Amino acid sequence: MSLFKKSKENITIAFYVIYTLITYLLYVGFPGDAKTPNMGVVALFLMIPISFIYAAVQVVRHFNTDKSYYKCLLIHTVAWFSIITFLTNVKH
């Protein structure tokens, strides 16, 4: 079994890893001020609807196809639990 096999679970994990990395790079590369929001913060807020749509598509596929998306839905849950835990513990 290859680690880089193109499975639906690996694609879901890659989505969160790549999106979080892009958000961090935007946060560092394009700083904001009091009047202009930081691009990383904007990307983080956009992650909410994007990931919910992605999870909803997988829920629909789970119930309408023969494939199980249980592991993908578990990945979404763990990712969001981790993000929420990180954001509530960050102190500026």
Provide key terms for this protein:
92 residues; mainly alpha; elongated
Kindly describe this structure.
The chain has 92 residues and is mainly α. The chain has 3 helices and no strands. It has helices at residues 8-29, 39-64, 70-89. α1 (8-29) runs antiparallel to α2. It is elongated, with a radius of gyration of 15 Å. The relative contact order is 0.12. The model has no long low-confidence stretch (mean pLDDT 87).
Cα Rg: 15 Å
Total number of helices = 3
Q: How much strand?
A: under 5%
H/E element sequence? HHH
* Major sheet size, sense and barrel closure: none
Q: Label the overall shape.
A: elongated
Which structural class fits the helix and strand makeup? Answer: mainly alpha
Provide the low-confidence segments as ranges.
none
**Ends apart, CA distance between termini:** 43 Å
- Mean pLDDT across residues: 87
Tell me the helix content. over 70%
Give the beta-strand count: 0
Reconstruct the topology from this structure.
Elements: H1 8-29, H2 39-64, H3 70-89
Helix pairs in contact: 1-2, 1-3, 2-3
Summarize the structure.
This protein has helices at residues 8-29, 39-64, 70-89.
